[in-house]
């Protein structure tokens, strides 16, 4: 067996051994990035909710607006519109 053939066999053997691990590493890196993006999104959502809690505890105008929106009523003189979209 020549040196060239031996080197080819060694390279093929190394690829067979290390390629599945490299592939798994790439998948784990992609999942890690996805999870980090989800963490960032959840932190932002959490901050938004904390801001909303603060407003609900301190801002009477915000409380009134939320209550009117939820109950579907308006102030005297206001005209409320309901926008609907066809799902076609």
Task: Characterise this structure.
The chain has one domain. The chain has two helices and no strands. The chain is elongated and about 95 Å long.
Number of domains: 1
What class would the helix/strand composition place it in?
mainly alpha
H/E topology pattern:
HH
Number of helices: 2
Average of per-residue pLDDT values? 87
Q: Helical amount among residues, as a percent range?
A: over 70%
The Rg value, from CA coordinates, equals 30 Å
Largest sheet: none
Form type:
elongated
Secondary structure: elements and pairs:
Layout: H1 3-58, H2 60-71
What features would you highlight for this structure?
88 residues, mainly alpha, elongated, 2 helices
Short description:
The chain is an all-alpha fold.
